[in-house]
From TrEMBL:
Keywords: Acyltransferase, Fatty acid metabolism, Lipid metabolism, Membrane, Mitochondrion, Mitochondrion outer membrane, Transferase, Transmembrane, Transmembrane helix, Transport. GO terms for cellular component: mitochondrial outer membrane. It is found in: Mitochondrion outer membrane. The active site is at H471 (proton acceptor). GO terms for molecular function: carnitine O-palmitoyltransferase activity. Catalyzes the transfer of the acyl group of long-chain fatty acid-CoA conjugates onto carnitine, an essential step for the mitochondrial uptake of long-chain fatty acids and their subsequent beta-oxidation in the mitochondrion. This is Carnitine O-palmitoyltransferase 1, muscle isoform.
Amino acid sequence: MAEAHQAVGFQFTVTPDGIDLHLSREVLKHIYLSGVTSWRKRAIRFKNGILTGVYPASPSSLLIVVIATMSTIYARIDPSLGMIDTIKRTMPVSGYMTVQTQTVFSAILFSTGLWLSLILMLRYTLKALLSYHAWIFESHGKISFCTKLWLTLVKMFSGRRPLLYSFQTSLPRLPVPRVDDTITRYLESVRPLLDDEQYNQMEVVANNFKKDQAPKLQKYLILKSWCATNYVSDWWEEYIYLRGRSPIMVNSNFYAMDLLYVTPTHRQAARAGNVVHAMLQYRRKLERGEHRMFNTTRIPGIETGEHTAACWGHNTIRLSLDFVQHLSDRKHLVVYHKGRFFKVWLYYGGRHLWPSELETQFQRILDDTTEPQPGELKLAALTAGNRVPWARARLKYFSQGVNKASLEAIETSAFFLTLDDEVHGYDPEKLRSLDLYAKSLLHGKCYDRWFDKSFTLIAYKNGKLGVNAEHSWADAPIIGHMWEYVLATDCFHLGYTEEGHCKGDISNGLPPPIKLQWDIPLEVWLLIVSNVIADDVDFHGCLFDEFGKGLIKKSRTSPDAFIQLALQLAQFRDKGEFCLTYEASMTRMFREGRTETVRSCTSESTAFYLMLNTVLDLFRKAADKHQNMYRLAMTGSGIDRHLFCLYIMSKYLSIDSPFLKQVLSEPWRLSTSQTPQQQLNMVDIKRFPRYVGAGGGFGPVADDGYGVSYIIIGENLITFHISSKFSSPETDSYRFGQNIRQAMLDIRALFDQKDKKEKEM
């Protein structure tokens, strides 16, 4: 074990002549290097804390202000208008200084105050600039003079090298929309889904709410927006994610896939070694801002509050709901393979393990033939089930002894790695290969992923990879950003030998992985039951390569609007009716912003579907309407988060609102989300067209509905990830995929017909 390995570096023997010390130079060297690394990290964090704290100014600007002030004083000019003299007279230690020293000290104090005032002025100026959103509503390729001026000023006030959280204090707060606007947009969104009688009833209920209950709720919500950095995010995280007592597997967690066509090496340990090292490099970049991606775990809570859940290493007591535990730099990860859990150190001699060293560690685990301890094989299934039984079991059976130590190793690890014993990935020659790959990433065997970790990295036997991510701590674009960096670094920077191994040497004396020990009683075994949720997931992956972003843009249409209208058409053909449709939009332009909903089913879109074969203008109107709603959502004028917060406020104030109850109970039978490509500079797709990712997906939201995630890859490929439930007789993921394909082709045909007519004329 690592502890025993390190212990031999320090030995002593008691002799008649005294104590004879034996110190290992190698171990002392590693101790020294670890100390240097630790202090270097502290110094970097301290430095970056200062840089972020004074942004958009820089620490050197203080010296410039001081020098400028001192220069004016020696030129017998008083830039302070008498303030320096006032400071000099009121200094309590003025009797111990010469007149010249008093003047210098007073000038420095004045300069520092002036500098801090300038920083605040710059921040509020930048905040005002970032509150300007008219640019997003301008037509593509047409930039107004105001927007050009705005871009110039933003560049001027933004500084040259912002860090991860430099803009945090300059981002504007998410505004609370006017109730009238929200109600009007809500009624507009449900109009195509209701007949005249139903709509009139809804209109009456909405207007009664607007007149009677909304004013009081809105006042309190505005008060909350003044006190909180974001009036939505804390309640959204708590009530949508952490208070949920149902399983997070399938229902909340999501996944991301590997490269679609390329597998850089088929050696499982080597691929895991490179990717883990790339993740450590990414974590190092994030340490300047302490992002919550790594060293993070969701801890289960008990709804009734009859027990408490203690945070590892802290005295904080949590009641009633789950909470997200985030720790500082962790130096290990936990690996699962064939029912065994292993702790692997990520540092050696004060540095990250090289990819070749990580490969060696993972290969040791793959070669380990020991059997799982009783109850160990399916232990992780506790994180896949209902939250209350898991929380109770955690408190009762994992709060002491080896169980506590082993669970602590998992929950405090940088992340979780599964060396899967299955083979997955996209294979065009195998039917449903993408479907099975997605289901494996989403839920696996239900006991071979630790669903509470911020993310689980999955390395398959054939070298393919994937990620399963917990949703409460962040949204999919955060994981997507990291995953893009990792895959590009793996393929284009780290690389492999001709035999498929990781490059680099291996240090002697590398401590082997530590097998975690368990003493799991029979009562815990009984909690681990087969999970029917996973068996009920009907999944289909659809690769649409007939055309892509390039052709859509030629038709002067937003690719996202084009796809959303195709999804609506597919839904109408699939079920013969329209439905309430959810599309996720980001609100990252605001401080602590997360998501907002775009209600994609509109009167304009339904009019287009009903007149599909005759009117192209209706398509453009529907697309423009969708784009406008998307922009409104991004700029803080969405509908659903405002209504959600009004509902939570009504519960706090014990106000019964039939309108809000109905709004919050409406099912999203079509839930959609686009996976954005964020770092196009990482891989040149034109030079390396096969090095494209497949995106990711999530489970169905409604029992009788579809979950659809899509990613626009390059100019000629769009990948759809479609999920539903086998238990619903109304849905079929493969059928819906075929409907999407046909809808995309039919909409394109409209533009082809128009182009043909224009050429004939």
